[in-house]
Amino acid sequence: MTVINEQSRITLFFELRLEDGHVVDSNFDKTPATFTFGDGSLLPDFESVLLGLAVGEQREFIMTPEKAFGAHNPSNVQRIPRSQFAMDLEEGMVVSFADSAKNELPGVIREIDEHNVTVDFNHPLAGHALTYKIEIVAVEAA
C-alpha cells in the first residue's frame, strides 16, 4: 500500500470549517484536489498531517491560527484617505493594492466614512482556528 511521503502526488477531498462550524470551503461534492507534496500550494503544517496516510483514510484535525494563516495583526489595518480611491467602494469589497516592491496586496474594505477608508490587509482567515476534514483519494509518485 502506497502511503504519502515527501515525493507524493496526492488527490484528496477536503473541508475547511471555522470555529463556529461554518464551512469556508469544501470539495466533497465536487472534483477532488490534486497537488504535489511540497509544491507550495498547501500550508506546510497541513502537509505534515498527511504524511503516512494511504488511499481511503480520513482525518479531521484543527490548525491554530499560528499554524494556519497567522494571528490577526491590528497594524495590518490601515486608514487611507478616501480621495485616494477612484472607484465606488463597498464594505466587504476586496481591492488590489501594490506594496513598495510593486507586489499585489489584496485588502478588504472594512469601513467607509466621509474622509477615510479602513482597509484590512490581514488574510481573511487570519486569527481563526481551522478544522480540516480530509479523505485521501489517490497517492502516486510525483
From TrEMBL:
Q: Which InterPro entries match?
A: PPIase_dom_sf, PPIase_FKBP_dom, SlpA/SlyD-like_ins_sf
Enzyme class per UniProt? isomerase
Name the SUPFAM superfamilies for this protein: FKBP-like
| Keyword Isomerase attributed | yes
Protein family: Belongs to the FKBP-type PPIase family.
Q: Which PROSITE patterns match?
A: FKBP_PPIASE
Recorded protein name is Peptidyl-prolyl cis-trans isomerase
The UniProt keyword set, sorted, is: Isomerase, Rotamase
Residues folding into a coiled coil are none
Tagged with keyword Oxidoreductase: no
Single GO term (MF): peptidyl-prolyl cis-trans isomerase activity
Taxonomy, superkingdom: Bacteria
* Domain PPIase FKBP-type per the UniProt entry, residue ranges: 7-81
Pfam families in UniProt: FKBP_C (PF00254)
Q: What is its EC number?
A: 5.2.1.8
**Its catalytic activity?**
[protein]-peptidylproline (omega=180) = [protein]-peptidylproline (omega=0)
Which residue positions does the secretion signal occupy? none
